[in-house]
Write a structure and sequence with these properties.
Elements (H helix, E strand, L loop, with lengths): L7 E6 L14 H12 L14 E8 L2 E6 L19 H9 L3 H5 L14 E7 L3 E6 L12 E5 L4 H10 L4 E2 L6 H14 L2 E15 L7 H4 L1 H9 L3 H8 L16 H9 L8 H10 L3 E2 L5 E2 L7 E7 L3 H17 L2 E7 L6 H6 L3 E7 L3 H4 L26 H12 L3 H17 L3 E14 L2 E2 L19 E2 L1
Parallel strand pairs: 11-12, 11-13
Antiparallel strand pairs: 1-3, 2-3, 4-5, 5-6, 7-14, 8-13, 8-14, 9-10, 15-16
Helix pairs in contact: 1-2, 4-5, 7-10, 9-15, 14-15
Amino acid sequence: KVNPDGTMDVTWSLRPDVRWHDGTPLTADDFVFGLAVQQDPETPAKASAGIGLISEAKAPDPHTLVLHWKQTFADANQSGPMDVMAMPRHLLADAYQAGNKQAFFNNPYWTSQYVGLGPYRVGEWANGSQLTAQAFDQYFLGRPKIDRLIIRFFPDVNALVANMLSGDVDASPIGSFKVDEAEALRQRWDSDHAGTVLTVTTGIRYGGIQYRDPTLPWARDARVRQALIHMTDRRSIVEHLLFGLTTLADTPVPPSDPAFGILQSRGLSAYPYDLTRAEQLLNDAGWRRGTDGVYQNAAGTPFSIVAASPARTNINVQETTTIANQWSQAGLAATPDNLPYNAANLNELKGTVKGVFFGNNNIIPTSYYGSFVTSQISSEANRWAASNKGGYSNPAYDRLFEQYASALEPAKRAQAVADMAKMGADEAVWIPLYYDFDVAAFRQGVRGIGQVPPEQVANSWNIHTWEID
């Protein structure tokens, strides 16, 4: 319900048959309490962006939750694990209200004494080794078909691969393997049909261009940015570094999104690998090859640029090096910068790259397109924690994002997404590489694991329906 003053109320009706693992019924007061903890500035867990827009939560009866929003918000009618979450008031309220926040967040409830709402309850927990999960008989979607799970922790992925090949591990969730490890497992299993390696699209891999210094060639001229994409052999990266496990991306809008059709009908600007076209664009922008083959401006200054990414995996390092090499061969003075992944100031390093920072983002519009609005520019003032690492700022783009964030009708939201994606493509605001992905794996005889949409990067959501031989 949208109110005359621009605020909004969302009413949720709760199922009456949901119970905590100790048998206590779930009530709306559990969500009211959970929201209070989430909005506490001392809460260590990061909540979703929308949580800050909720000004009040009420429970008029045990099965009705009313959230009062400061403004209209497009995603207010959905709630995931990091959105408005229920916490068992009957178990935690006294500890929270005692005022010792450190003691509250160190409470054994959050580990070995966890009481949740899902299909499995925590059993024995050997810290750092494994835990058991027992089927919850009162789970509201039906008792799980598998009685007991043993969840094992593998600090060494090679040990995980070995255990999967031997059959000692039945399944591994999304995100367990790096690309080369997943490919090795797939090749072994494909030869004897012993299991399945499932590729799941999770987002987009893209280059965030640095805009903080307006004198830089790529910051002031869209033709230069377009040339950078034309100089990037993305297909080679997908085929040789990623074993063809994903596809190129010309836009962050996935083909399954209604906005994709709108974008296609209006004409999506794409920049295939084309060094001739790149040279034309750079020439038009005032850059020509010198005697050494490197592009330079009229003053003789060479075109210098950095391709950077955290050195989280070997693939990240190879990718950054490959792109820098491609740009060098195309005529730029390009260098790779593999940032130390565990650096305490990693966010600052991301925000001050002298060129293009390559990273991952999911393709939920609020997250991806929100990473380019002016209010999200990272800086020393916000400890470099905000999502707009490149400092891009465009009032027209900000207005489009606001239209998306406040639109409640699906058609208007899809139109706003198409508008942002088209502006991003036309002006080459970002450099799209490929659709990012993770891998799940399961042996033959495990049934029920399947694809999930990019917005839902957890393949165990239906684990209560899984079966095993």
